[in-house]
Each structure stands twice: as structure tokens, then as C-alpha cells.
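Bug report

Summary: C-alpha cells for chitinase differ between web form and batch submission.
Environment: batch mode, default settings.
Steps: 1) Submit the sequence below via batch. 2) Compare with the web form result.

Sequence submitted:
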Amino acid sequence: MAQVMPPKPMANLPALVEKEILPLIPPGDSSPWKRLDNSFTFYPDSPPLSSSSSDTDDLDQSLCQSVEVSQNDEPVIAVIGVGYVGTHLVSSFSSKYQVIGFDVSAKRIKDLGLEYQEHENVCLSRDSQDLRRATHFLISVPTLLRPDKTIDSSYLRDALKTVGEVARSGSTVVIESSVAIGMTRQLLGPLAANRQFFAGMSPERVDPGRVEPPVQSIPKIISGLDDITPGSLDAINRVYSTIFETVIPVSKPEVAEMMKLYENCQRMVCIAYANEMADACIPHGINPYEVCEAASTKPFGYMPYSPGVGVGGHCIPVNPFYLLSNSHFPLLEYATLAMHSRPSRLAERMLKRLRQRVTEQISSRVSLFREKWMYVGQILWSSNLHYLNVNEDGTLRSIDDWGDNNKVVDGEKGCLAALRKLKGQHPHIKTLVSIGGGSSSKEFPALAASKAARQTFARQIKEFCDAHHFDGVDVDWEHPQTPEAGKDYVLYLQAIRETMPAPKYLLTSALPTGEYCLKHLNLPVVAQLLDFLNLMGYDFTGGWTDVCGHHAQLLPPSNNLNEVYPTLRKSCQRGVDYLTSQGFPNRKIILGIPAYARYFGQARGPGHPFKGSGEIDYCDLPDEWVAGAKVEESIAAASFVDTKGDKGFVSFDVPSTVCVKARYAKAMCLGGLFYWTGAGDRAGPESLVAAGWKTLHSK
């Protein structure tokens, strides 16, 4: 079982540390493990260490400090800094050795204690005295930038100071953090020479979000300061080769440092190039994502990179400045500056578009889809009732005769009667009858391909709307899958519009965000026929996808998950961008919000495989899931990992993510929001409908 070591009292530094260790580490200009720029957050600052006992109290500390480490000693691995990278090191090395995970963050140690509670080879601690029994020290602390883009090595300097206080002669010290060229020699070299440590550098290659290949299968670069402490490379190789399938020694740490920075900076340059390509596509009316997909069909000589708003993560935005600190890279410098200014340039471009549209008066609408006879009394702009379906010959059929004829709703017998009462109370509300949807779409291809069936449907749906006081029809064909079906879809809409002309009747249609569907449609013609297109901003992932992920994200994740798994590239923004690039008017696009969650069994998060899946209405989610949701406002997505059940990943929207989407809809001059389905919403401050409405109509 993993042990979480509580802190012990901090003793005064021994004279050895004050006189010999501290002078060996070039002085830093920031306090221990504290960033100078508070706008960066890694882990919360830890409270002062307090007095408590430890499971290592019985160790002979004087013996640990005095006895030199030999090759015959059983390795005990200390990982200094157990963030994302450090956690991978703990997991990898604990498969064979005893591992001490050390961090100054009390919260981090507590969280990892739950994760490793069943692991006998792992103990976790905030007390440096627990490190005395270690034979190998792997340093994986953050390497940062100050606001002026100069290097902040304070974490690394203080980690080395901690190691110098507790490590025995003959110990092996390896820097895993990304550093500037020569920094391993500058910071670790004097300490290794004085204390006779084996020392070197092995840059981490953990890629956040990627689950394949496993860390142990990624070739591991190692290097040693053999010119300072002979045998360093062999000492590092003896342990690393037992964990990693492929270990690649290089001649000196400077090679390993340059290799790591070159890898990451190459990605920076390639992403900058992809963004330049996207910018060049705009005046030509070209979809840059289509260009990327076409180029990626080449089986050699091309690496796929997609354009975006910039670069994210802990490494890619930082590493270029480490390389530029003591090296001349004009191309890299240009790409880096371009990437750092890109978000503001995109914002300026959006503001320019908004200023050009300032005279347009767009009324923000909120629509609700209702299944069968489900009904609530306060609907904001329109209600789409899913009550009918269609046969292949164009004739209509009810999908809930009993519910309509017998269910008493709001004092009226039958759903349709209740809707008539609602329209009498709120004349501005529009009601549409929705046809099809999901598995109910299978009749559409044959219906749309037949002129007689199209005319039959148009005639019968008009008669139904007139008889029951509906304002129009919503076509929920999910979705035309071939170019021929796309042409038939347009003919189908034309038949309806000829029978139900605007503006007397409304005609809308629900469609997915994916280009796999939209590319089959003549969108300029569709825009002329429809009053609104209900863009289904959900179901990006589900039981049909290979991995789990957010099923309704506004933006794709900023990490490389969307490169590894094409499924995770889907987003609301991508659908809107494609529609507008084809000339579809922004004001006719209604962005869809799901009032339900998607559940992925035995999955820890996006990019992970899962076992079993399902849907849960937002109103039926446990309160602790909604309250404890992890909200990623940068992509407008919320999630919860069910640690009490089968440890499943749950993706859903919460009011704050709906507010982000509503602000996006306003900024893009979209027509508004719709919700599937209104019956799944919660009441009060957790209402998704209310959150969207208030944001759309805020000043």
C-alpha cells in the first residue's frame, strides 16, 4: 500500500550544507519553489511544514548519511516533483523498485495518496528527511519563464539544494526537467564533483493526453557527466535500462538538452506554419482544415498539424525561450513571436468582423426541443415538439397517440391542447413539429428520393400544422450520408417550402457539426430555404467512438489529443466555421446545447478507451457530480470522474460552460441557442436554459 509521509520539523541546515552545498549551486533570484510570476499556476503554495511522525522514523539517519551508495545496493528511487511528469516516473519505476515521491504541495501529496493507496512500492512525502534512504534522485520539477521571458530556474535550484542536503556519496542524480543548453553542467556539475554523485540528464518525453505508446515504450535518451564523475552514464543506464524498453545513450548532457528543445521547438515552428497556411486560405475562400486532411493522405514526408489559436501546455510555449537564451535561431525566434501574438491578432480579426456587422440587428433566440408530450410552462422563444414521424411514402404517423389523447398537462387533456393554451398565454412563442431524429431518420433517404413522397409529406405536414396551430416544421434528418442524399435533401426542403411559404411558416433543420455531413449539402441553397439551421453541438463522442472525450466541447482540446484521435477534433466552433466558410449566414445558425450527459465506463478522461457507455439526463445527474464537475472554460466543457462507481468519465454541460457558448454565439452573431431536450434541464441556478438566456440578453 502506498504510504503518504507527513512532514517532520525542519532542522537547521548542517554546517556541511551551508558551507559546501549552497555555494556549489549558482545562486538564483527567487525564493524556493515559488514562481516570480503569479499568473502562472502549477500547484498551490504549500503551508508551513508541521510536526508529525513518519513511517521512516526507525531508519538510522546517520547511517543513511554516512554510508556510501554502492552498485550492490538495491535501488531506491526518489522522484523530486510529482507533477504530471513526476507521476509517470513514479508509476514506471515502482514497477520494479521502491519509489519515494517527494513534493512540497500538501494537496498534491494527498491527491496522489488516493491514486497509489494500493501500491506497495510507493511512498509519498513532503519531508526531505524521508529522502535519505534513496540511492537515485530523478528531478522533474517545473522549468519556467518570468514575465520578461527570461529563464526562472528557481524550482530546479531548490530541488538540487534539497538533494544536496540528503543524498549520500555514490548516489545518482538525473535531471528530467527541460533545461537550457549547458544548464545541467552549470547547476548539477559542481555538486556532483564535490559530493561524488553520479550525474546526468535524461529529458522527459511524456506527452500529456497521449495514452499510446506507454511511457516505457518511448525510447529514453540518457547522458552522463562522465568528465566530472566517471561512470555516470553507466550508473544511469543500469537503472533506466530495467524500466525502459529502449535506452539511447548520447555523448554528453548538452546533446540531450539540445535534443529535447529541438523536438519541442520543431512542433512550435510547424504549428506556426500551419497557422500561416490557414491565414493564407482566407482570401482564397479555402477551408484550411480540408487542406490539412487532404495533405495528411500522403504516406511520407508530411506531418499533420492543424491551425488553431496558438500553442498550449507547459512545454511548447516555454522551450523556445530556453533554446534562444544562448543560441541563435532566427527562424525559431520569428515563429515563437508569431505564436505568442496570434491570440491577440485573432481577437482583433474577430472584433473587425463584429464592427462590420454592427448595423445588423440579430435577435438571440432560445429554442427547446420536447420529446412527445413532455412540457414545461415557460418556454423562451420556440418549442420543437417531437410528436410525429414519417413513412417512406411521405405519410405521417404519430409516435405517441396515447400520450397526446390521455395525458393531462397543465390542466389540459393532451399535449397539443396544452401547447395551444401556451400560445394563447404567450403569443410570441413559436411551436414547430419536429420530424425524424437519430434512429427515426431511416425513412428519409427513400422519402426524399421520391417526388411523389416529397409532395405527400409536404401536403400532410401543412395540414397538420394548420389543424393544430403549429408555426412550422423542423426536419431532423441525421443525416444525408452521400452526395445523392444531399441533393435529395435539398429537393425535400424545396417541396416543403413550396407548400409552406415564408414568412407564414417556419422551416428549420437539425444537422451535425461534422464536415462528413455538411459537405454533401449545397449550403447556399439550403440557407435560402431554411429560416434557421439547428447545429447539433453535441454527440461528438459516444458508444460508437474508439475513445471517450467531451461530447459537446465548444473548442477542441489545446493538447495533442485531437491530433492522435480524429474523433476528438470535433467541436461546435469547427461546425460554425465550416458553415460560414461556405456562405451560410451566421444569423441563421442556432447552436445546440445538450441537456444530458454521456457516460463512459471505466475511463479516466479524454483519449482513454472505455467499457460501456450511456446517456443520463442533466436533471438526473447526482448532485455531487454537478457540484464537483471539472470545468474547462477554455474549451467550454465540463466532466466528472465517478470514483465511487465504475470509475467512469462523464461529459456534460453546466451553467458556466453554457454561458461561454452563449458569449461565443453573441460574438459570432449567431441566431441563438437550442436545447435537446428541455425536459432534461434542472430548475433554479443550475438551469442550463436560464444560463444561456441571461447571457444572450445581457449587455
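Above is the batch result. After comparison, the two runs are identical; trailing whitespace caused the diff. Residues 407 and 413 are 6 Å apart (CA to CA). The first strand starts at residue 3 and ends at 5.
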